[in-house]
């Protein structure tokens, strides 16, 4: 699924701008709306954009579930190995 977001915090380091995500500056409502229109007018890009980030994230371990934390897969960003996501 393509990402539509603002360039807030670490988001630009996690997604590929214009490849997997359309990013707008923070608090830019018009820019966000323009990117939404752009995405809606180009449905042929959705599949390609939706698979771009999958190439960046490599599963490194499967976490066993618990009542407190649930379960999940820990991923490491291939572009930025220090950025861990769960």
Would you mind describing this structure in some detail?
The chain folds into two domains: 3-53, no CATH class; 56-85, no CATH class. The protein contains three helices and five strands. It has helices at residues 11-14, 29-41, 46-52, and strands at 3-6, 21-24, 57-66, 70-77, 84-85. The strands form two sheets. The chain has a three-stranded antiparallel β-sheet with strand order 3-4-5, with no helix packed on it. The longest helix has 13 residues, at 29-41.
| N-to-C series of helices and strands | EHEHHEEE
Strand order of the largest sheet: 3-4-5
Catalogue the unreliable spans. 81-86
Number of helices: 3
Oligomer: single chain
Give the helix level as a range of percent: 25-40%
Beta strand %:
25-35%
- Arithmetic mean of pLDDT: 76
DSSP strand tally: 5
Alpha-carbon distance between the two ends = 18 Å
By helix and strand content, what is the structural category? alpha+beta
The rough form would be described as: flat
Provide the domain count.
2
- Cα-atom Rg, whole angstroms? 15 Å
Concise description?
By secondary structure, the chain is of the alpha+beta class. Helix content is 28%, strand content 33%.
List the helices and strands and how they pair.
Elements: E1 3-6, H1 11-14, E2 21-24, H2 29-41, H3 46-52, E3 57-66, E4 70-77, E5 84-85
Parallel strand pairs: 1-2
Antiparallel strand pairs: 3-4, 4-5
Question: What are the key terms here?
Answer:
single chain; 86 residues; alpha+beta; 2 domains; three-stranded antiparallel sheet; two-stranded parallel sheet; 3 helices; 5 strands; 33% strand; flat; disordered C terminus
